[in-house]
Design a protein that fits this description.
This protein has seven helices and eleven strands. By secondary structure, the chain is α/β, with parallel strands linked by helices. The protein has one domain: 3-Layer(bba) Sandwich (Glucose Oxidase, domain 1). Strands 1, 2, 3, 4, 5, 6, 7, 10 and 11 form a nine-stranded mixed sheet that branches. A two-stranded antiparallel ribbon has the order 8-9. Strand 5, helix 4 and strand 6 form a beta-alpha-beta unit. The termini are far apart.
Length: about 230
């Protein structure tokens, strides 16, 4: 029986967003637009691995997407070479979580290319070593079992799925301690507007709370309760 041909796609060119746009997005967080956008948020199973520097986490950058077959991290190694300054490497393991494709070595490789973070729809290893490098990573968990280089295929800079969310190469990644938001560049200005409006509204609410007003009154929860009680 003939051996099936292994195919892969490596696209080295990535249409990266304008630097001004990225700087403007740094003024908001995924939380600020969480009430407005219904898409772009991966499932909560993909969480912050506490590997970045101490203090508040705020990272914004273009997604360099990677799709790999289970147990094979060949394309992850290549992605650390393709990455450029500010990129966030986003890996789709196609549902596999037992073997970690990311550890200290790939972190150091990504950092040497200027990458600013990683999102792994799967597991990571060497978490303690990575935390000493202050490199922020989101993943589903940790594992002592690791992938190997089998050369079974995979792709770089193609559309992928991460935590139930479609991510295209060059989509803008917003990361903080609570989660991630993937924003297509053409929707970035709207996201900035939503975020700024949310920040202004929150400031008003905080002022009302400090003045002694009830949160239930501010949010109209009391009005809704009255309606439910009258029905």
């Amino acid at each position: 029986m003939p051996i099936a041909e292994v195919k892969c796609m490596v696209i080295n060119d990535l249409d990266r967003p304008d630097e001004t746009l990225l700087n403007n997005l740094e003024s908001i967080s995924p939380n600020d637009v969480g009430h407005h956008l219904h898409f772009g948020f991966p499932c909560a199973d993909i969480s912050y691995m506490e590997t970045g520097s101490s203090g508040p986490l705020s990272v914004v950058g273009p997604a360099l997407t990677v799709r790999i077959p289970p147990e094979d991290s060949t394309m992850v190694h290549k992605a650390t070479e393709v990455a450029q300054e500010g990129d966030i490497i986003v890996v789709d393991m196609q549902g596999h979580t037992e073997h970690a494709p990311w550890g200290e070595i790939t972190t150091r490789g990504a950092m040497s290319s200027g990458a600013s973070g990683a999102v792994i729809d799967g597991s990571i290893t060497d978490s303690h070593d990575i935390s000493e490098l202050n490199f922020p990573i989101f993943a589903r968990g940790k594992s002592a079992r690791t992938t190997r280089l089998h050369g079974r295929g995979g792709d770089i800079n193609v559309p992928i799925q991460v935590g139930g969310t479609v991510v295209d190469p060059g989509d803008i990644v917003l990361m903080n301690e609570d989660g991630i938001l993937f924003v297509p560049p053409e929707e970035a200005e709207a996201a900035i507007q939503y975020g700024q409006e949310a920040i202004e509204e929150e400031s008003k609410v905080l002022s009302q709370i400090e003045a002694g007003k009830s949160i239930a009154d501010i949010s109209t929860a009391n009005n809704l309760i009255e309606q439910m009680e009258s029905e």
